[in-house]
Amino acid sequence: MAIALLGSTILIVIGLVNRTAGQIPILAAGLAVLGLTFGAISVACVVNIVRAGRDGRAARAFWAAMAGGVAVIIAAGCLAAAVVLALVWGSASGA
Length: 95
Hints:
Blueprint: H1 2-17, H2 23-55, H3 58-92
Helix pairs in contact: 1-2, 2-3
């Protein structure tokens, strides 16, 4: 997951710096990968919540739930931005 986070972040930075016709698709792809990665992190947090709950570790379950909630919010924002950029690119290219 660390590789996907780093790779998508680099792709987003390249998309922000790149001022060509491929800027919007690069940004959309980077945001989509970042959103999917944060979605996977949130699923991992759910697994941690269940395990901590079964072991009776309330504090660990709480913090895993907090981290999972933040990850889900970031994932939703990244995926929404990727969809908007894809729609903008599709309408700009005449599709």
